[in-house]
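Hi Prof. W.,

I finally got the Esterase FE4 prediction working! I wasn't sure whether to trim anything, so I left the full sequence exactly as given:
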Amino acid sequence: MKTCILVLLMCHISLCTGGQHLDVTIDQGTVRGYKHATRAVYAFHGIPYATIPTGKNKFKSSLPPPKFAGVFEAIEDAVLCPQLSNDLNYREDCLVVNVFVPEKVQLLPKSVLVMIHGGGFAVGFGNMLLPYNIVEKDVIVVTFNYRVGVHGFLCLNSENVPGNAGLRDQINALKWLKNNIAAFGGDPKDITLSGFNAGAASAELLLLSPAAKNLFDKIILESGSAAATWAVNPKSVDFARTVAIRNGATDVDDLLQLEEYYTSLSYPELIALTRSDGRHMEFVPCVDNGAAGEEIVLGAMPQVILQNGNYTKLPLLTGYTDAEGLIYYPERKRIMIEMDTNFKNHLPLNFNPYAYIEEADAIQLIKRFYFENTRVIENSIKNYTDYFSDSYFIYWIIESAKQHALNSVPVYLYQFSYVPSTQRLKGLGLGAGHCTQAFLIHDHYLTDDEARTENDLRVQRRLIRMWTNFIKMREPMSPHQTDYWEPLDVERMNYMTIDLNLQRKNFPLVERMLFWDQIMKENNETDVASGVHVYLGLFMLSSVVLIIRHNNRSPALNPDLDTARNSDSDHDLDSNFVPTLDFDFGLVLISIPVSTFDGVSVSVLFVLLVCGQQRIVTIAQGQVRGHLARDIYTFHGIPYATAPTGNQKFKGPLPAPSWDGVFDAIDNIIICPQNSFIIGPLPYTENCLIVNVYVPDTNSTSKPVLVVVHGGAFAYGFGNSGIPYNLVDRDIIVVTFNYRVGVHGFLCLNTENVPGNAGLKDQITALRWIKNNIEAFGGNPHDITLSGYSAGAGAAELLMLSPAATDLFHKVILESGSALNTWAVNPDGLEYARKVAAQNGATNINNVEQLEEYYTRLSYPELVTLVGNDQLFSFLPCLENTSENDAVITTMPEDVLRSGNYTKLPLLTGYTDAEGLLYYNERETRMTEMNENFSSQLPPNFDFYSVLKEYEAIDLIKSFYFDEEVITENSIRNYTDYFTDSIFSYGIVESSRLHALNGAPTYLYEFSYVVSTDELRDTGLGANHCAQTYLIFTNVETGPNGTHTETDAVVQRRLLDMWSNFIKVKEPMSPEQSNYWESLDVERMNYLVINTELENRSFPIPERMRLWEEVMQEGDDSDAACAIHFHIGLLFLSYIILIRSLS
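And this is what came out:
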């Protein structure tokens, strides 16, 4: 559970504040909060609600908080309690609250929401999630810290270590809140307690605890429950002994000696006790006995309290996501191996005290039910996810909801299954990951509102509305609303499915929940659930004839259907296979005996999809298996090379591996080492050089092939970050691939071990692999189009100009990038490497051997953080030594273009009219820097590329774009134009001109259509960076349930027509078409404007291009550009005469 949380800790949350402040007087003194710069919220950060005891008392209850002499500046927003963390520093006195108050003033007190952070009881802090969206619904929100890990949850039930210190902190925070929230405008009689992950378990434990009685009035649980086996360790003292022994302690059977061992350890030593194993939550809450006069927090196991009903009944909103188990996706390879070799390591935590059957029997049942007694491998990923979803989260959440409802609590149960466009594992198709609902409701450091689609925002608005309704009115919907969400009735186990649309359902995940009942409950259980389960069995049995597919569960393997029916194999379930109707995709009914009710054997009968269409292709390395989805066979993660390691890791790639048997090509999230600030918590792997092949399910042979080079400023990204299914639908085979990025791919020292351009060498190796193997997939190796977007376009053009890539492709498409952009090649890669090394403390950087030694000894985590989070255009392609046999770039691209010494290929290239919107979100910072030090905002490598002195260029630029005025929000159009031209469009237009001069058929375009879902649409500034790529890749849906307009669909079809025509016949339009798009003629610089209509024009943005020619080109330039400039002059002269004649 720590996996997703640790990523959050890697980024210090820096909250924007404006000048307005608000002073509030509380019991401790006056506290001052500040208004957020862009949100209608006052934030009070880091207010102490208690004092942590120290020394040998550090595991006891917290002490009273300090008082303030003057005004307490509540601005410290990243206070952490002692824990295992990467970058943020913890401190001992960490018990603080953060209060978020709506700016809106009203006389009536406001409802209050208190959020308990998650983190597996081991990591985390109050401000992990920022609740601005709820606050802006006129709710005061409070977050807080509590002690975590061994510091918060060591339980010895002894005088100095009574246990549950973290829960006692939570109770003290609630008491502080109850006493002080009125001063902030909150209603102390209207407090909702919420939590996500382990925070949800904590919240429910407090609901069941008499120690927290009357401190809150409603409760919201997100993806967690106190009933889960990981929420309470019933054998906490034994566990403390185990950990102590593991760390070298003796005399652990003596409780006083054990207490002495723990109380004598420092915080670093305490933290080091805990394994950094992402699955294991080590120190968790316990049943405490009130040692040393401490108030008892948890006097019995949660299940016992729930069943006897001896607790305060409060309205409850609780639920889960449909793929909670994705929290264990990054560790799947290790865990799958362990599940095969020693499955008990991956039973639910504290399994034996909770289960009612023997461990060995449980393992046998689980392996049969989820994995059909086969090996747990990548092809089992759906079942693997279901297993962890159910065993760690869903079963316990549903069981808790049922018990509360049996105790007459108003319970609102939901299943959240919407997958936001920003979810990193969206492409897996497995469902909504752990805590997705919490991440959609609240902000966090990975939040990118600009990247959210209209569907994302629609679901987010619905969630926020239902949650705030519950906070304010105790139910998520009004009874008068359609799809009214009723409280849970255990007779039908009704719940709400929250997806793009709402749907009321009954009996969640019936087979899977019934299965876990058999493991976790006594067979003679007599409560209402028994009746419910009998009903479920009948419900399932009567419904099976209607089922033609299993509820999203894939089989562990995909055996041939006939083999499954007829073979004499010794598969444990063979005797349970029964005949079924011969559907095209093949179904098998499986009956598994799971329990006995009143002497009657009851079996779970369900349907497995077992023969999804596959295609096996034989290539040089062996056989690969692809799978059919939406009429496309997908082959993911096929190795095209092997990344060198150790001191060789910056060299060119090594040959690809071969294999025996069939390679199952299903791993679609393989990522090369890169900074997680951009890609979030996706794990990278060193051996990442893979291709993904998308093959249309059509009968045609020798199909044209499109190869896509991903973008990402040469610093981040992976092949499947964009998948053009829409072009595959046009009967084109599409190949995407990974290449090394950042320092791993583009460190350039021109030495033996670091020759430079490893990422480009990967790209060439991938193209060779495609050339040699694509025929086996049905592709034509003599009809390959290379395309790229953003930095991928720069890379594609570099390969076009490189003799090392000759004959590997036959046409080129460039989208929003060029090799002539100043960011595409660093002319002095060695000097940049020295600069970065010096910034990171290296010495002897002028000695290139020492410099090589410095870089080659760094680990990948160290390499990817060398330039911090400012990754854009850091390590770039470079000039290499001509003596290197595999050198890719030995001459600057502009020199190659001017010489014409390269293979001329048909080229489709262009830009959007507002590429500079890439920097829209950073406008405040950049505008300030432009006013104070404009040189910091010049294009990368400017001094090398410009023919003017820097100060001369700055004077020209400021005069042309900004009229020498201060650059403010009012300058946003000029700001956008400046970055559009300097970073993208000038280099793209100049590149197209030089290709056309060299006789290459060149098709130049300007894309200016703003898609309806573009979140910057209302700025009126134009089409964002790579907007054309987005529209080509995206799934445009129109109609009542769609998020796009018919115009979006029309423009997309037009783009796809032109792009696929170019891929197939080397030109985007037939000459017979209206608005025929002619190849570029440098005498008139003709280009096509792509918007709702097509328009042929001449001389793109001439004034702006002329300025950059003056900055970037020698004044005595003697080629055809001179004639062009003359024509531009005549064009403007005639334009002026025309205007004057009309005025």
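Residues 2-314 form a domain with the Rossmann fold fold (CATH 3.40.50.1820). Does that look reasonable to you?

Thanks,
D.
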